[in-house]
Amino acid sequence: MVVSMKEWKLRDKIGQMIMTGFPTADITPELIELIEEYKVANIILFSYNLCNAEQVQHTCTDLHLRIEQSTGHPAFIAVDQEGGVVTRLPGEACNVPGAMLIAATGKPEYAYQAGRITGKQLRKLGINVNLAPVLDVNSNPDNPVIGVRSYSSDPYQVERYGINMMKGLLDEGVMPAVKHFPGHGNTATDSHMGLPVVEKDLSELMDDELIPFFSAIKQGAPCVMTSHILFPKLEKDKKPATMSRAILTGLLREQLGFQGIIITDCLEMGAIQSFYGTAEGAVEAVKAGAELLCISHTPALVKEAIQRIEEAVSAGEIPVEYIDRAVSNILKWKEKYRIEPELKDISVIGSKEQKEAVLRMTLEGITKVSPMELPEVTKDTVVIGSYAYRSTLASSSVDKELHFGKYMAGKLGCRYLEVPVNPGEEEIGAAMSQLKDAPSVIYGLYNGHLNTGQLALANKISREGKEVLAVTLRNPYDFSLLDNKIHKLAAFEYNTVVFDALEEVIRRQYNAAGKLPVTLKQAEH
User: Fold this and answer.
1) Cβ(512)–Cβ(489) under 8 Å?
2) Could you tell me which CATH number the domain at 366-506 has?
3) Which of 264, 277, 337, 375 has its CA 20 to 30 A from that of 61?
4) pLDDT digits (tens, 9 = 90+) for 462-498
5) What residue stretches are annotated with the Glycoside hydrolase family 3 N-terminal domain (predicted)?
6) Domain boundaries, given as residue ranges, for the chain
7) Which residue in 293, 296, 339 sits closest to 80, CA to CA?
8) CATH for the stretch 10-337
């Protein structure tokens, strides 16, 4: 589709390039103003917007209608529905396992199935863009933001699984945005909070991080999301990838041949807002070659960014051709993924068939890392755990009522002990005194490589001669810091589907046959 830009007002064009959100389940007056007065034409939804399937569908239908009436063109409505620790859909929907759990199954077809399950539900709800899959290669065990969101530390595994999920979404009529180009897996800083740096040159990136992205592009990826990361060997100025013309135009467009939409990660994240400012970041992103600008939360920043882009175009800082080319490309893809603003049958949302498929994937992904037979559970076994917490702003809000120890003890018919997520010496001592009569302990670890008190307690229990089964409920890197004689299960996620699957494994009703998709350092104990 060829769209002439000659009759368009500049503000109308810029509105097509903005994606924003709103803070409640109901559409706010501030959002209506952005749609009607600033012609903002794309929306991102978060968990707080999504109460139940019926409400989500009504909200999305309303948004599609408002945006089409205001702009004369379809809307993109997007969500971060990766699966696992990053899910936004409401409770009755079927949230698929995350990347690392799926990769642990050894079955790439499960990634495709996860894409189909996710895409089918999104489309029925009125959502036509999924900001997934993650194509980052998690090569840094200390990465605070990617971790289990990545399929593997092996780029070819990431390629295999990530592209299968991408194709599943495509086959359900949802536009996937593969992320975070050119790679967020080798960082030790969370770009929500700071500005990460990756000291790799192009040759090194081509041999690792870029493998999944290049393959996705060759296989028809319609949208790529940028990362807020400095790559000083690719961009000589101190600009993150999102603001780098060398990376977005020189590398992504020209060298890799990408012709789809370039969308930024949120420009309100710390990596942009704290170091450059959101509005200036938006201008630099457009100059770099970005087309869809995510400003997810703050209406005042959306207005400021639009006004600053208008000024930059008027001053010749941004050639108007950049704007025209971006809008033309966006509209082409909008026609392809357009959703008619009408209510549809949503009985498919969270169907029995979908939930059975998710449980099967979860069971097959649980991974027995140690060679020994799992310890027998008796009524005197104690399950230890802490409540989950949001370790990064990217992850979903957590169920504050769900406690691994309490839940699993109820399922297994034994006792439980609640400990802090990072117990100190005094708390470790108190826990040990309560475990003196326990022959065995099941310890649910939650990012123990960051909360090392968990690992100190697990090792101390083991060294007292008790059998310990350590279960990682997030990143499996905790195992590298545990004694060799500790039994080890990787479960990757903290939710009731995983806990129910764990019960079957711990009771020896199901043999955990998953395989870790990442490499662990050898424990030194």
Assistant:
1) yes
2) 3.40.50.1700
3) 264
4) 999 999 999 999 999 999 999 999 999 999 999 999 9
5) 10-331
6) 10-337, 366-506
7) 296
8) 3.20.20.300
